[in-house]
Amino acid sequence: MTPNRRFLYPFGRLAIMGCRAVHEMIWTILLVSILGFGMLAGALALTLFCIGFAGKLMSEEIEAIDKGQVEAIRATGANELQVFAYAVLPQVRVAWTGIAIYTWDVAFRAATVVGFFWGGRHGLVFAAIRSAAGEPARGGGPHLHSTPSDSLRGRLGLGPGACCSGEIEPIATTQSLTALVRLADE
């Protein structure tokens, strides 16, 4: 059903397989390392996860349609968009609605994992707590080493914590916890 089966189909399948092959936790760690703490990294991680998840299910529904209706619409001289609108979409509309709702549910569940790796609002709060305690508020998630993007951000001058020494530093230090307790008391 792809308009350009020679070029567009392999590229689309590769994009879906690439997004599907990487777990949302890995997407979050990767994007937090590149973009830093915050909602942008979390939203992009969930978007890439959902593209792979929903894309596979939706493409399987298209491949399972009745080809007779497609051939009948093509026989009338319809172009590719008309074939999709009048032969494919009516057959997959209900299934796609169910897949969209299911993907929405799975994304809510995956958001817990994304939040654990500082890919949402909690990452911004964590960065504020670290900066209030006088510590560098660098990205990188809960792992314990500096990231390759830290040196790149340092060279580009992209903000606090951009250059890190590379030494192992625990995420939740005593100063961070003290600042958190101080903020909670206010």
Count of spatially separate domains = 2
Low-confidence runs: 139-153, 155-173
Write the CATH architecture name of the largest domain.
Orthogonal Bundle
- Based on secondary structure, the structural category is mainly alpha
**CATH topology name of the largest domain:** MetI-like fold
CATH superfamily of the largest domain: MetI-like
What's the helix-strand series?
A: HHHHHHHH
Number of β-strand runs: 0
Percent of sequence in beta strands: under 5%
Shape: elongated
* CATH class wording of the largest domain: Mainly Alpha
Question: Helix content range of the residues, please?
Answer: 55-70%
What about the largest sheet? none
Tally the helices: what do you get? 8
Overall residue-averaged pLDDT value = 75
Short note summarizing the structure:
The protein is mainly alpha-helical and about 190 residues long. Helices cover about 70% and strands about 0% of the residues. It has eight helices and no strands.
Describe the protein in words.
The protein has 8 helices and no strands. With 186 residues, it is mainly α. It folds into 2 domains: 8-116, MetI-like fold (Orthogonal Bundle); 121-185, no CATH class.
Describe the secondary-structure layout.
Layout: H1 8-21, H2 24-35, H3 39-63, H4 67-75, H5 80-116, H6 121-132, H7 148-156, H8 174-185
Helix pairs in contact: 1-3, 2-3, 3-5, 4-5
